[in-house]
Amino acid sequence: MSSPPAPSPSRSLGEGRAPPDASIVAALAGGAEALRALPPAAQAFVARAVRLCRPRALCLCRGSGQQQSALLRHLRDCGTVRDLPARDGCWLACTDPRDVARVEARTVLVTPRPEDAAPRASPAAGGAVAHSPLGNWMSPAELERAIDALFPGCMEGRTMYVIPFLMGPPGSPLARAGLQLTDSAYVAVSMNIMTRVGPQFLPSAPASSSSSSTDDFVRCLHSVGRPRDGAVPVPSWPCDPGRTLIAHDARRGLIVSYGSGYGGNSLLGKKSFALRVAAAMARSQGWLAEHMLIMGVQDPRGRKRYLAGAFPSACGKTNLAMMRAALPGYHVTCVGDDIAWMRFDADGRLRAINPERGFFGVAPGTSEATNPVAMATIRRDTLFTNVGRTSTGDVYWQGIGQSLPPGVTVTSWLGQPWAPGDPEPCAHPNSRFCAPASNCPSLDPAWEDPEGVPIDAIIFGGRRPHGVPLVFEAFSWQHGVFLGSAMRSEATAAAEHKGQQLLHDPLAMRPFFGYNAGQHLQHWLDLGARPGARLPRIFHVNWFLRDQSGAFLWPGFGHNARVLAWICARVGGEAGAVASPIGLLPPEGALPLGGLPHARLFPVEPGFWRRECRQLRAFYGEHFGSHLPAELWRELGALEDRLRKA
Ligand code: SAT
Ligand code: MN
């Protein structure tokens, strides 16, 4: 008789409360101290990960400024970051050029059945992985196999950073804890900017003895990886791009990421937890986790409204959230620029928190003209990645809006000498700044209110060069959800896609859905049907209309305040609207257009919209099929009817 197979090293990575093999951990440099500070369930997770990944040492992250400085000095000594003497407390990291953006093709949701992950994720016969535009699926057994192939010994010779963190303001009913283990000090430093870090944020005991292991904190295991052939062409930025995997098992509250140290692939509090896993939690707990900015708009009479806005990555969410209104008497404040967690309160109002504590914004194009508030936010204590560096120790990128002083030279993100006019940009198109929210001069006073801010309007938008008006309002919540489901935008540099293709991006969540996108839309519809819900109005905006020569029609940026003013007036019942087949439009003269003809900014061309309907019908059919809520098929049919009569 053959002996039973040895237990897989990954088996039950996320489960169990008792710390097994605590002695292994305690034997590591820093191990005993790291363990003692953590509740038993967290100790168990660390111990299992240590046994699997075999790091040389453990370092517990406490969220202190002192530790942050020590980590940055360590990163400097490793050549991962350089200081930027022109800016207080600022640093520049340059990555392996193969590790520069989210890797959507290798990002998966782990569920027993493929249809729980994405509407049309159908694996090839007997397969354990399936790809679809609305999400990729992996079976739990395949995840175990992948962990066994990727993680054993992956941290050998490295330190494992133990990062307890909180998403959301302390004390908020919406805040949730996580524990990320990573072998990247860069990730530890970034997490300390983007989230609230410290062992005090981990719940000390599970809510009840019957609670599952997902109730206390989300377990996040991350390694930059170790290529099989041992080749690390950029020793200061180890990664394993050929085998990258970012896997989410929301049922187990487990996120496993291997091979990339960049952005959303590795800062697991952000897209992985705050969007994908949180969306799955939100579905069962009756709230929403969405890819949305949150902003306050105060009008000249001092009345304040809060808006949430969903736009695909790199469509100007940060610019909008930090806008300086170019409209007299209006004042805009920022609650968050990327993610909103929202729930209805006892009075039926939708309230939103920003689960993050920092901004991870696109650098190129950020300037005093486009986003002066961001420029102020990144003056100090900011970690830049993949931007250019000047000989005076400052940052530089395309569209920074400042010419180089005489004699000042630039080194590109690739470490090459660079001069204005060179064909390649000095900063990678997806280069980023990572800055604490507290640096932001327009930060809303209520940004850390545990109850969240009351949301009066929801805005959907994308980059649409033609056909889609500057702003229009949905007829109803259902119609608004339909508008969200129908969102499309030009591809951006935030992921690996190439070219100027128009991508369908429902709710701006396409790469971030945490469960079947059809069920996510159904969850929106269900929340809207809740008795007593005082629903926000829903709008669609498009700042990106172009004329025949390809130039933008609308000045955008601070001038978008004119559109926000109309939205706030609609919310307050003070502005009229004109019905059209696609929704409610501002009447001519309702918002100042700076001399631009109304008809060009508010095109409602039946031919364009009929084409749009045909493409949407094809997209719905091909990618949602029977998983699309019946209400949304009905909304599409109703739009087609209205256009027929137009
Ligand atoms: O790299 S991130 O996913 O964090 C940024 C983005 O895509 O918006
Ligand atoms: Mn984003």
Explain what you see.
By secondary structure, this protein is α+β, with helices and mostly antiparallel strands. It folds into 3 domains: 203 residues, Phosphoenolpyruvate Carboxykinase, domain 1; 233 residues, Phosphoenolpyruvate Carboxykinase, domain 3 (Alpha-Beta Complex), CATH 3.90.228; 81 residues, Phosphoenolpyruvate Carboxykinase, domain 2 (Beta Complex). Helix content is 26%, strand content 21%. The chain has 17 helices and 32 strands. The strands form 6 sheets. Strands 1, 4, 5, 6, 7, 8, 9, 10, 11 and 12 form a 10-stranded mixed beta sheet that branches. Strands 13, 14, 15, 16, 17, 18, 26, 27 and 30 form a 9-stranded mixed beta sheet that branches. Strands 2-3-20-25-19 form a 5-stranded mixed beta sheet. The protein is globular. The structure holds sulfoacetic acid (SAT) and manganese (II) ion.
Question: What's the SSE blueprint?
Answer:
Blueprint (H helix, E strand, L loop, with lengths): L21 H6 L3 H6 L3 H14 L3 E4 L4 H13 L3 E3 L7 E3 L13 E4 L3 H4 L11 E2 L6 E2 L1 H11 L8 E9 L8 E7 L2 H10 L1 E2 L20 E6 L21 E5 L4 E5 L4 H4 L2 H17 L2 E3 L1 E7 L5 E7 L6 H5 L9 E6 L3 E5 L5 E4 L4 E5 L9 H6 L5 E3 L2 E3 L4 E2 L13 E2 L5 E2 L13 E5 L16 E9 L9 E3 L3 H9 L2 E3 L11 E3 L12 H12 L8 E5 L18 H12 L6 E3 L2 E3 L12 H4 L4 H19 L5 H16 L1
Parallel strand pairs: 1-7, 3-20, 4-6, 4-11, 8-10, 10-12, 15-26, 26-30
Antiparallel strand pairs: 2-3, 5-6, 7-8, 7-9, 11-12, 13-17, 14-15, 14-16, 17-18, 18-26, 19-25, 20-25, 21-22, 21-23, 23-24, 27-30, 28-29, 31-32
Bound molecules: sulfoacetic acid and manganese (II) ion.
